[in-house]
Structure prediction request, 520 residues.
Amino acid sequence: MEQSLESYLQLGYELIDAHYPGEWTIENDQLLKGEYLVDNSMVDPIADMIGGDATLFMGDMRVATTVEIDGARAVGTTASDQVINAVLGNGESYFGTAPIQGEQYQTAYQPIENSNGEIVGMWFVGHSQEGIISTVYNNYFWFAVAFIVVGVIAAPLYYLLNRNISLRFKHTTGVLSSASEGDFSKVLKVNTKDELGLVAKSYNQMRSQFQTLLEEIQTTSELVAASSEELYASAEELGAVSEHNTTLNEDVANSTTAQREKANEASKRASEVMDLMQKMSYHLSDARTVSEETSSEIVKGGKLVRNSMKKMEFVQSHTMDTSNSFDQLRQDSETVGNIVTTITEFADQTNLLALNASIEAARAGESGKGFAVVASEVKRLAQDSAHAAEEIGRYVENIQRQIKGSSSKMKNSLHAVEEGLDEVANVEHAFQRIDESMKKLSTKVEQVSEDGGKVTTETVFADNAIQSVTQDTEAIADITQQVAASSQQQHASSDEVATAAESLAELSQRLKDQASVFRF
Prediction:
């Protein structure tokens, strides 16, 4: 009842709000809904709809109601205190029993608020308990009348129907009894759609399905028998395969042990290679240091050779200048020799002329004495000139011999300087080739060192791989042992499968024999 009143309360409020739009307000001590003055016309349709009473309150006073006192509407009366405290005081809805004008009602109240959220009244729907009891009594009365009428009419019909049903029930029971003994040859006739008709129809369907099931059981039993034979043969083959697998697992275990030993030996060799590569790395580092020092010394030697070459070129230049000077001096000495020869010839001619003059002066006698003195002096001068020219000639010859010897030595020195320059140039080229070779050697040492590092890294990788192979080998050995154990278990299982196959064949035959009991 409370849930119905709550629904009626909400539905009635929504109907009023839909028919009379606007806010709830109080103006001039009158309750308004929008532009409409609240009156009894707002609550009458709702009271008729719910079959009870409905009321709108302004504050705690009824301003529109269907509740009557002595045949008149109870407009202007107030609600009970418990309702006023709950709804107007606490702002809550109220559901339950409450007195209205001395009579108990099943009620539902909710507050009415204006646009500011202030409570301006209440909305009520309800039923009087007296009306509820009257309605219940009326319902009971008409139910009793209907029951009596139905009993009077139904008694003869019950007898006729019961007799027919009894016969059909007896027939149905007999068919079902035969079916319980395995005889499904009888079929129930379906003439009605009542419960027995449904039972007959269900029985016939069950019989048809059961017949199909038994046929399938027969077929399945034959298939199971054949499959059990194949399963037995497969179990025998599986046992043989298990034995073969056991042998293979033993061979794999032996091979795994040998592989593990080889992997350990390879790991040991890899460690030795790593040690050798480490030592080689140290030696390569020393070789690189020596190579760098040698290259530095070669660079210094090249500088010294180039300096020596410059000095020898300087000596060559000065030696060449000196040789040229000696050649010029030789030419000048030859010129001086020629002049001395000319002087000697001139002195000889002068001496010859002085001799002739002396002869002519002697011939002239006294008159020629003065000329003879002059001729004597000229002769003496010619002889002195001749002696001086002779001395000069000897000096010039000596100087020419020395110049010739010095020139020859200078040429030999110049040739030696040129050969020295060639040798120095060859030495410089040799130093350059050595420097290039040392650079190539240093590059090779670097490459070998890098390759050694790579070899070391690869050796580490190889060692790690060998370790991994060793671990995998050990894992394979463990798995092989597990597989061997599984093979043994499989062999045992194959025996069990063979036994189970034999049992399955026996069970299928028993099932086939038991199914043959049923008759159709």
Notes: The longest strand covers residues 103-113. The chain has six helices and ten strands. The domain at 2-131 is CATH 3.30.450.20 (Beta-Lactamase). The longest helix spans residues 195-364.
